[in-house]
Amino acid sequence: MKKIKVGIVGGTKGMGHWFAGLLKKEGCIVHVSGRKTKLQINDLARLSDVIVVAVPISATADVIRQVGPLLSTDQLLMDLTSLKKEPVKLMLANSRAEVIGCHPLFGPQLKDASGQNVILCPARGKKWLGWLKGVFKKNKLIVLESASGKHDKMMAIVQALNHLNTISLG
Which residue among 5, 11, 46, 83 is least enclosed by CB atoms within 10 Å? Predict the structure, then answer.
């Protein structure tokens, strides 16, 4: 079977770095780009089957606008942000690739993410969804699916409940 080639924009730190480790463990060929790497976004688009946007939310839109037009219908464009509606909308508008929004509900400091939740927001295509779900399930993550708008509404409620809990319990 062909090894999946993954390019992670922002894969030098944080969640992108964590995701790179997971995918390497799964036998993927992983390329990363960051502000100080030799590889750039256009290199990743050329070398990869899957492009993961794992930059701070403030840079996400710019990166999507830069990488999206470089991708074909055979590739997957996904992000790792905590908000989904706008990034998914931008990925759909700026690329022809399959699109999946991805929100891991844990931080990159976890060595073992078994039992942790990850929300997928599939938006275009089906070819890559099974592969991505399989990677997470093989590593014992709990995979949930949601529309991007519904995801953001749910996360707003969760955030509000966390704040209420902090205020009421001190």
Answer: 46
At residue 123, φ and ψ (nearest 5 deg) are -125, -30
Host H or E run for residue 15: helix 14-25
- 10 Å CB burial of residue 26 (0-12, 13-18, 19+) is middle
- Which of 127, 120, 106, 90 lies closest to 4, judged by CA? 127
pLDDT tens column, 82-126: 889 999 999 999 999 999 999 998 999 988 999 999 999 999 999
Please provide the DSSP assignment of 86-105 as one string: HHHHHHHHH-SSEEEEEEES
Is the separation of the CB atoms in 9 and 16 below 8 Å?
A: yes
DSSP 145-164: E--HHHHHHHHHHHHHHHHH
- Quote the distance between the C-alpha of residue 87 and its chain's center: 10
Locate 22 and state its tokens. 């997971």
Amino acid type, 152: D
Q: Which domains does the chain have, with CATH numbers?
A: 5-169 (3.40.50.720)
